[in-house]
Amino acid sequence: MEKLVLDQDKCIGCGACVGIAPDSFEFDGGFSKVKDSTVTDAAISAKDACPTFAISIENEEKAEDIAA
What we know:
Blueprint: E1 2-6, H1 16-20, E2 25-28, E3 31-34, H2 41-49, E4 55-59, H3 63-67
Antiparallel strand pairs: 1-4, 2-3
């Protein structure tokens, strides 16, 4: 399963992600944070628009896959 990840150290608070994908991102203390980590078309557009490449999509292993 894939999920959105935001690197807080790279975020400059420009707001592009919040403007493009408000269901996925929100402002917190002047910087963006992930509101819903579900990968959607809008979230992918926000990732692509991020000027500092702070947003990534990562694989999240299921617990049963790790135990196997």
